[in-house]
């Protein structure tokens, strides 16, 4: 902008998928914290918004009560459609001064996207993953994944901008045809004061572990199957599987009372702000054997805490984890591959150096000010009518 140009107003409608019982609200609030210093006003339309965040003169919240954990698949689909229609309705009621709509984890919300286009809003679709690849054998889920894939393509076509968290995510998600309107904004910011290395790797308790949502597609059960193989080499090693989710009962059933898993700790839910950094500072290797990801916050947070990351090369992970430099890549998610790599990596003499490399990458690319600057540049150009 020139010296005499006026900064365009940024009045943002933030549409987000409802939070789950497993703490995903931290993702939404992270993005909102980035948007607050940029926006003149923000109107949030979502479900199950955390009660600790209160509306004020700058932040308005339409919080929809939403529980879709129980019932048949058809009932879940019907409730989800009804939610989308309600969100579209509320978007139409937002005051006319709002000029941008940001969709976060809402790539399938076609009714809301159509409402935003009808109102003449500038639209930004944040692509953090996909619901078109559901790891479920049930035929209903296969049909749902097919429908979601179609809805995502329509929304990406309609959006004025698509925000992705990393360059490799564009190829992984087959978004190349939208390249002219894609912005790489670096994902979520990391609080490098909270997430910091406070203990040397050699002094940490757990040889390897996973922390996050315990859900299909994360490779958790394969990691469990790898542990007996690892213990043939590291008999006294401790392991951690932390988090909550639909697989928690299966994990506890598999590990409970079995000699092969007597050194596996399964604490359940781990508070993001209170306990996560302490657990990460007791972990040497974070294992993420996912088949699909965006740019996982747990990878960024682990790297900030000096944990060495061992992960499959999916989503945006290759932009963070450079094999042998800032972490290590798994060739596949089989128990044998996981076990072999954990043994191989744990015996490397340069783990402390790789840990420090990872920390420096987070400090350079993923701090609050860096992510704010990227979002501000994108939104100001968008509302000013700059070409794609």
Specify the helix fraction band: 25-40%
* General form: globular
Beta-strand percent range: 15-25%
* Helical/strand content category: alpha/beta
Overall pLDDT score: 89
* Strand order within the widest beta sheet: 3-2-1-4-5-6-7
Unreliable stretches (pLDDT < 50, length at least 5) are none
Distance between the termini: 17 Å
Strand segment tally: 13
Write a compact overview of the structure shown.
The chain is about 40% helix and about 15% strand. The protein is α/β, with parallel strands linked by helices.
SSE blueprint:
Elements (H helix, E strand, L loop, with lengths): L10 E6 L8 H11 L5 E7 L11 E6 L8 H21 L6 E5 L5 H9 L3 E6 L11 H20 L2 E4 L2 H6 L9 E3 L21 E6 L8 H12 L6 E5 L5 H8 L8 E5 L7 H5 L2 E6 L8 H8 L3 E5 L4 H4 L7 E3 L4 H12 L4 H15 L2 H16 L5
Parallel strand pairs: 1-2, 1-4, 2-3, 4-5, 5-6, 6-7, 8-9, 8-11, 9-10, 11-12, 12-13
What does this structure look like?
- By secondary structure, the protein is an alpha/beta fold.
- It is 38% helix and 17% strand.
- The protein is built from 13 helices and 13 strands.
- A 7-stranded parallel sheet has the order 3-2-1-4-5-6-7, sandwiched between helices. The protein has a 6-stranded parallel sheet with strand order 10-9-8-11-12-13, sandwiched between helices.
- Helix 2 packs parallel to helix 3, helix 3 packs parallel to helix 4 and helix 6 crosses helix 11.
- It starts with 10 loop residues before the first strand and ends in a 5-residue tail after the last helix.
């Amino acid at each position: 902008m020139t010296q005499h140009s006026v900064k365009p107003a940024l009045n943002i409608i933030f549409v987000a998928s409802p939070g789950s019982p497993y703490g995903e609200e931290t993702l939404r609030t992270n993005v909102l914290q980035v948007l607050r210093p940029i926006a003149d006003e923000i109107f949030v339309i979502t479900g199950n918004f955390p009660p600790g965040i209160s509306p004020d003169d700058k932040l308005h919240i339409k919080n929809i009560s939403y529980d879709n954990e129980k019932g048949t698949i058809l009932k879940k689909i019907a409730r989800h459609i009804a939610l989308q229609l309600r969100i579209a309705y509320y978007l139409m009621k937002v005051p006319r001064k709002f000029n941008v709509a940001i969709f976060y984890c809402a790539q399938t919300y076609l009714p809301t996207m159509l409402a935003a286009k009808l109102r003449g809003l500038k639209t930004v679709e944040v692509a953090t993953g996909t619901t078109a690849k559901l790891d479920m054998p049930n035929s209903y889920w296969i049909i749902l994944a097919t429908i979601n894939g179609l809805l995502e393509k329509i929304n990406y076509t309609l959006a004025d901008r698509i925000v992705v968290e990393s360059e490799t995510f564009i190829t992984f998600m087959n978004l190349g045809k939208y390249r002219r309107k894609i912005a790489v904004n670096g994902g979520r910011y990391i609080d490098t004061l909270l997430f910091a290395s406070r203990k040397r790797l050699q002094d940490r308790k757990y040889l390897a572990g996973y922390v996050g949502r315990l859900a299909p597609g994360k490779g958790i059960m394969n990691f469990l199957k790898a542990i007996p193989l690892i213990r043939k080499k590291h008999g006294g090693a401790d392991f951690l599987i932390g988090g909550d989710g639909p697989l928690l009962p299966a994990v506890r059933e598999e590990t409970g009372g079995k000699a092969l898993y007597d050194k596996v700790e399964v604490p359940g839910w781990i508070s993001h702000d209170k306990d996560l950094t302490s657990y990460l500072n007791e972990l040497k290797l974070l294992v993420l054997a996912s088949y699909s990801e965006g740019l996982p916050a747990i990878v960024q947070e682990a790297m900030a805490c000096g944990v060495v990351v061992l992960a499959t090369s999916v989503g945006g992970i290759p932009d963070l984890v450079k094999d042998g430099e800032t972490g290590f890549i798994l060739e596949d998610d089989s128990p044998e591959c996981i076990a072999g790599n954990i043994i191989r990596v744990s015996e490397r003499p340069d783990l402390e150096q790789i840990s420090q490399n990872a920390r420096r990458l987070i400090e350079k690319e993923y701090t609050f000010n860096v992510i704010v600057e990227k979002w501000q540049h994108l939104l100001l150009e968008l509302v000013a009518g700059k070409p794609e």
